[in-house]
Amino acid sequence: MIKPRNTIHKKPKEKPASKIKFGSFTMLNSKMKVGRSVSGFLDGKFFSRENLAKQIPFILFITFLGVLYIANSYNAEKTIIEIGKTKKEIEELRYAYITTKSDLMFHSKQSEVAYKLKNSGIKESLVPPVKLYLKAEK
Predict the structure, then answer these.
(1) Closest by alpha carbon to 107, among 99, 39, 1?
(2) What is the C-alpha to C-alpha distance for residues 40 and 51, in angstroms, rounded to an integer?
(3) Alpha carbons 54 and 46: distance in angstroms, whole number
(4) CA 2/CA 106 separation, integer angstroms
(5) Distance between CA atoms of 52 and 41, rounded to whole angstroms?
(6) pLDDT tens digits, residue range 98-131?
(7) pLDDT band (50, 70, 90) for residue 21
(8) What is the 3-state secondary structure (H, E, C) of the chain?
(9) How far is it, in rounded angstroms, from Cα 52 to Cα 58?
(10) How far apart, in whole angstroms, are the C-alpha atoms of residue 114 and residue 125?
(11) Residues near 45 by Cβ (< 8 Å), separated by ≥ 6?
(12) Burial 95-130 (b: 16+ CB within 10 A, else e)
């Protein structure tokens, strides 16, 4: 036979919200000896007036790093745009080079040179070139 218990259990008192600590963080801090700044940041003590005044140089440093990061990304985008423009310019210059080279090859053909010099009185030679030899002295 089971006898019922007539004892009344008292409820544990709850701590006010401002004094509640995270048990796992205090246990982590005690076991692993995590720095005060990390546990203070996680508990919310980091944002109290006294600590916030101490942390102003760190906050300014983080802000400065953020500004540098943004400036670096803008500079990278600007460089990428300039690279694209330079590639297009190189492509246009290559096309101009090919066109100029083909015009030069056309105008330097023997028949084209002869046609252009016809009015000036210079005529094309009909005698093929002759190779000259020197006799070696003994």
Answers:
(1) 99
(2) 9
(3) 10
(4) 117
(5) 11
(6) 999 999 999 999 889 888 888 888 888 889 999 9
(7) low
(8) CCCCCCCCCCCCCCCCHHHCCCHHHHHHHHHHCCCHHHHHHHHCHHHCHHHHHHCHHHHHHHHHHHHHHHHHHHHHHHHHHHHHHHHHHHHHHHHHHHHHHHHHHHHCCHHHHHHHHCCCCCCCCCCCCCCCCCCCCC
(9) 10
(10) 10
(11) 51
(12) eeeeeeeeeeeeeeeeeeeeeeeeeeeeeeeeeeee
Sorted by sequence, the CB contacts under 8 Å of residue 116 that are 6+ apart come out as 107
Nearest to 59, CA basis, from 47, 69, 70, 71: 47
Query: Per-residue pLDDT tens for 50-71?
Result: 777 788 888 899 999 999 999 9
CA nearest 117: which of 129, 130, 108? 108
Give dist(CA 41, CA 35) in Å, integer. 10
pTM of the model: 0.47
Q: What is the CA radius of gyration of the chain?
A: 45
CA distance 65 to 101: 53
Distance CA 87, CA 13 (A): 73
- The CA angle 34-37-39, to the nearest 5 degrees, is 55
